[in-house]
Amino acid sequence: MKGWMGKSKALFLFTMLALFLAGCGKENLTALEPKGYGAERSMDLIILTTLIMIGVFLVVMVIYVIALIKFRRKKGQEDYIPKQIEGNHKLETIWTVIPIILVLIIAVPTVIATFDLADESQASTSLNVEVTGNQYWWHFNYEDEEIVTSQDLYIPAGERVYLNMQSSDVIHSFWVPSISGKMDVNPENVNTMFLEAYEEGVYWGKCAELCGPSHSLMDFKVIVVSPEEFDQWVSDMQNVDPEQVPEGAVAQQGQALFEANNCMACHAIGSSPVATGPNLTNFGDRSTVAGILEPTKENLVEWIVDPESIKPGNKMTGAYPSISEEEANSIAEYLMQLKPSEITPESAGN
Amino acid sequence: MSITATQKRGFSAVLWDYLTTVDHKKVGILYLIGGGFFFLLGGLEALIIRIQLIKPENDFISAGLYNEMITMHGTTMIFLAATPLLFGLMNYIMPLQIGARDVAFPFLNALGFWLFFSGGVLLNLSWFTGAPDAGWTNYAPLSVQSPGHGVDFYVMGLQLAGAGTLMSGINFIVTIVTMRAPGMTYMRMPLFSWTTLVTSILVLFAFPALTVGLFLMMFDRMFDTAFFDVALGGNTVIWQHLFWIFGHPEVYILILPAFGIFSEIIPTFSRKRLFGYTAMVFATFLIAFLGFMVWAHHMFTVGLGPVANSIFAVATMAIAVPTGIKIFNWLFTMWGGSIVINSAMLWTLAFVPSFTIGGMTGVMLGASVADYQYHDTYFVVAHFHYVIVGGVVFALLAAMHYWWPKMFGRILHEGLGKLAFWTFFIGFHLTFFIQHFLGLMGMPRRYWVFLENQGLDTGNLISTIGAFFMTFGTIVFVINIVYTAMKGEKAPADPWDGRTLEWTLSSPPAHYNFKQLPLVRGLDPLWIEKTEGNGKMTPAEPLDEIHMPNSSIVPLIMTIGFFIASYGFIYQVDHKAWLIAVYVGMAIALGSMLYRSLKDDHGHHITKDELEREAD
Amino acid sequence: MSQDHSLNPETMPQDPAKATMEGKHKHLGLWIFLGGETVLFACLFGTYLALRNSTAGGPSSQDLFGLELVFLMTILLLTSSLTSVYAIYHMKNNDFKKMQLWFGITALLGISFLALEIYEFAHYIIDYGFTFRSSAFGSAFYALVGFHGGHVAFGLGWLIALMVRNAKRGLSLYNAPKYNTFGLYWHFIDVVWVFIFTVVYLMGMVS
User: pTM score, two decimals?
Assistant: First the structure.
């Protein structure tokens, strides 16, 4: 934020707060408190355009109010015939030229920012993640690092991370409002955008293109950790042993059930390419169950027994034989133990 | 067939009259009835959406039903309510304003209405078996993969309604070009007639894009073609381009006639001629032209690249200039005038700030990088409701109060009108202003539920409360219509001290409109005669017999044919026996065309004697 | 205004198609309609251009198209446009028989065109298994060319209905505008074909 822009931003936020007791919305979700490069560039333009528009609005309203008060027909004026005026070239020129200037003032920074955010020159030297949108979950593949995960996207703070995004089914849209504006995730081509988060934290992400009944439940998180923590996480994830036997009889039974029910046909543990369903390598570290529920075992049991009641239209429903609550409890016990890394959403603060 | 005779006839005779009518005034009333019905239906859907969003994680309706609700709300309001209501007004008022006895193609006019209406009915029949659920924008491939027949109803319903709209558009253009009264030059035409012309041009060039899009969608869903099938090389973005090449001009198809309505009402109730008439006409054309250059601003996040995004961003912002010209011209029409504030004027006055906000958020959305945040959030929802409700719906309600006396011979009740206005106006801002913030706070549109603890609760609650206010206002307006029909004050020919030709005719006008075509001496012809003449139009022709078109049931039968065929197309996917419906329906439709083409129809004449007997 | 619209050489106006109000409306209305049709075909062309290389492993335009047949079709349709001009010329001279004759030739040429198009499609389907389900290219090709073919078929039905209907009535101010609008429509279809010939076939064989 530079000079006057910073001040106007403060003023803008203050006005908004005063106007609006609820504030700017939830931290790390709202676009009104940008904490990343893209969100900040958007915010600059939002502030610039809002200020100009408020100015225009005030001019319109002043003329409007004066006209209404001054020229309202009063008693005794019933037969008054006002002068019929065809127009006024000077005035008409003024209100043609000034808007053109205002539009140019907005257009120039818009074009600059548009090219700025489309800049892919650093892509080859930065971290790249392949993002796949699915009904109704997100798949993240760190190809160079040979790490696969889902729902929680780990990225280092202060660095550009390029996302190469494609959909496996319908169109989705990847949106982490506090870090950056959105980009559609299309089935026919790869769209690239970058995230550059300034601060560590857990950020809400949402799908912003109607993708079916559970469109509103396709949330995800971006976990921004320090670069050191990120490297730690990468090496932890690379060293996962997918076959590791969990602790406790219940969890071991859960692992057996997980295999017996052929869960891995869709859900990989480790960096397997299987991506029919979310990769579960670090499931125990997840910030949520199914993207929306608190990460508790009870919620996971509920999900395994009847996913349809939580996310209508999801692809897991009916893809496996029915599972009793007790069996689900064992599987949940096993999955909650999949904690390959010290680096968790908690390490990112929050 | 005089007016009094019409009033004395029984219900079935009146019904038959309307089913066969080719009179532009009756077709206009049919449009208003049809559009009004769908408006109430769409409003009910809106209310259900808002009730679902009254609190976090609500389960008032299921996720699937919610998607059907938003799809039908948007589709109904745009295609089946706003467009036909405006077309109804254009149909009724425009020929009167330009001094014509009818439209150029009365038969086509009736056919256009019936096609629109059957399309609307077809679309809404989908409620019984599952409505379309891919949003009113119906993006592929979600729409192609949508199970059931909902999207098929969408495709066929809009294809029918769209064909009807296209016909009306062509009809209006030819009418205005060829049928203006003597002396009614283009630059003397009232602004509402001007915007009718420009809107019709937009319809002509925009709707075929939708026709093609729907055609591709229909074939992909029903006959397994691969336009949007990525596995076979298809491309889903094509749908978005076709939809928005139509869809963006459609926004101007709605708003330009609204501008025209305000440009009639403001001068009348300010008792002052429209400020900057020439600039207003020019701005209308400029908006229409730019309207075709900006469709990809709906697609900033699709990944078209920075060059395309920049071009479309700047083109979008440019539209603010002619729109601003209009706003200031209206303000300066009022400036120095003698302003009367009644219900029609209240809606107009409410339009100015509301639409200014909507227009300004439009410029904000045009800034592509800012749009990366706004896109597909409640900010966009707020924006387009500010322009479509604050612009188009306010215009429609203003127009109802303004022209109701002309169309139905009675004046709408002022007290009820004001009550409806204030509740609707307050409810409107309560509902939609807060949504700007909801969007920026992270609430995408088309969300069935929003989760707890995301700071979205208060805003949504306020929004829903506003929706109830709007509902109340709408109900009061409907009560007003019923009350006026029964006990309303009878309207004279010129209740508002009007300026244009429609106010020279009785309320409602005779079915041939003008006994003798008037001689127009300038802009605001009636006003000129009031201030410089004897207050009456000078006839441009001697009293002579009038040639009028014959009524015909063929438009309705042709439409029924298309309707049956559409139903057949939808269900032949399940069972090939339904192809019989396709063939039968097409046979009826094409047979009607052939009948129309082969049977001579020279119309009829109203004799001089009859005209003299009906002398005022 | 008289109810009798039939013409004799003494009362015949210079341009019978546009002598009445209805005639003027029809003439202008059809021109405007063609404006809309232009957008319709432009959208189909756009779709075709976007998908013409999306063959999904199926036959491509180079595999399919042969110049001889398409060239013959082009000649037929262009000639039919010319013959319809002759027909309208005779209408203005109030020579009904010659007008019918030239319109008859126009119809025959149109039918031949349509027959060749059907043969062409059958050839692709039977010999190459290339249908509108084969690939996005297939869908786009059949949509564009088929839409044009549909327009030709509709135009033929229209023309034949007009000719049969008026065979015994002769030319009048009532039916002259109908022939005239058909003529305009037919020229439009012809122009669209020129674009199809260039964009689909010539470009398809080169690239």
Answer: 0.94
